[in-house]
Structures are given as C-alpha cells and as structure tokens.
Amino acid sequence: MGMKTGNRLIAGAFTLVCVIAVIWGSCTKPGDNLNTCNNYVCENGGYCSMDTLTKKVHCFCPVGFEGTNCSVRTVDRYVDTWNMMQIRTGSDSIKYDTAYNKIIDTVYYVVMLKKTATPTTFFIDNFSSNPYYNSIICSIDTGDKSHFIIDTFSSYHLMWDNYHLIAGQGNLIHNDSMIRADLITRHLSPTANWVNDTFAMFLTRHTF
Question: pTM for the complete prediction?
C-alpha cells in the first residue's frame, strides 16, 4: 500500500513538472510576448500585432511614442528653436480697439521648445520674449499626438510680476514645420486693474 502511494506521488510530481515545463516553454517562445512578433520587438511598451494573412507586423505605440517600432519620442517633433508671431486677438482693456489699433497687436520673438523628463510633455522657454518665463509645461493630447495643452499650473513662476496664463492649446501642422496655438493671459495693468487678453500664435522653425 505504501509503495503504491509513493508511486502515485512520484507520478503526480512528474506530471506537475511536465505541465510547468510546457507552460514555461510556451510563455517564452518568440512571438508569444505581447510586445514581440517573431522576434520583431515593439519598444517602450508598444503592443505588437501580426496580420495572419500577410504576416506583416504592426506596433501599437503608447502615448508619447511613435515610429514603426515605437522607438521615437513624440516630443522630438516639437523640440527645436521656433520663431514666434504672437497676435493679440482680443482684450477687455479699454485701450484695446481693433478699429483704431490703439495698442500693438503683433509681436515677434524666438522661443525654445525643450524636452522634459517624460515622453508626453515639453517645455516652452523665453515665453513672451521674457528670459524669466521658462519651463512652461505643454502636455501632448492622449488622443491626438499633434495637439497639446499649455499647463497653466506650471506658470506659477510668471506670477512675480503679475502675469498669468489662464488657458492655452496648440496644434502641430504643415508637416511639423508650423505650430498654431491660442492663449488667454491675465496681467495687472499700471492702473492696478486686471486685464484679460487673447492671442493667436504662429510658430515656424527658426533657421540660424
């Protein structure tokens, strides 16, 4: 009786080892990993899919990455030096009147768009042609990689001279050679009144 029980235990243990070996082997075969298709690897957490008929591989990239194998950071399309044309489109100041152009409507300057520590954001430096207005965070839209939102919470460092970013957003267009953006700002006038302005911004790549 004892021998039979021992044999059963040995057989059960052997069976268990075989099952584990099969599972382990199937899990480590090329192509079974979610980011691998027959040794073709989608980087940065991309999901790999292979067409069962054509055997062509396609990578579905997470937000912040793109390219055939998800190796390219989306923010790399933005990072550069840009020429800024900033046009005032509206204001609640009594000095602003589009019919008579009582204040300057258009200014030109240069901004730098720089990388951050994350693949879904980038910085704007030299905003409003002010060397102290740096590291304004822009976040890429999760549904549209050519659209970004200007983070108004990161503009705390602009508040020392009573200049606030209220809202802003933009789009990368024209084969990545132009950015079109809109912005609302709020600043304290010399008469101690708060003034709200709206701007249309057009950025083109700067050539040295």
Answer: 0.73
Query: Could you tell me whether strands 57-60 and 47-50 are parallel, antiparallel, or unpaired per DSSP bridges?
Result: antiparallel
Residue 208 has pLDDT above 70, yes or no: yes
Alpha helices in the chain (DSSP H): 2-28
Check if the beta carbon of residue 48 is closer than 8 Å to that of residue 147: no
Instruction: Name the β-bridge partners of 169.
Output: 149, 182
Could you tell me which residues come within 8 angstroms of residue 120 by beta carbon, excluding any fewer than 6 positions away? 63, 64, 74, 75, 139, 140, 142
pLDDT at 102: 56
Hey, what amino acid is at 138? Answer: C
Helix (H, G, I), strand (E, B) or coil at 134: coil
Is a pLDDT exceeding 90 seen at residue 98?
Answer: no
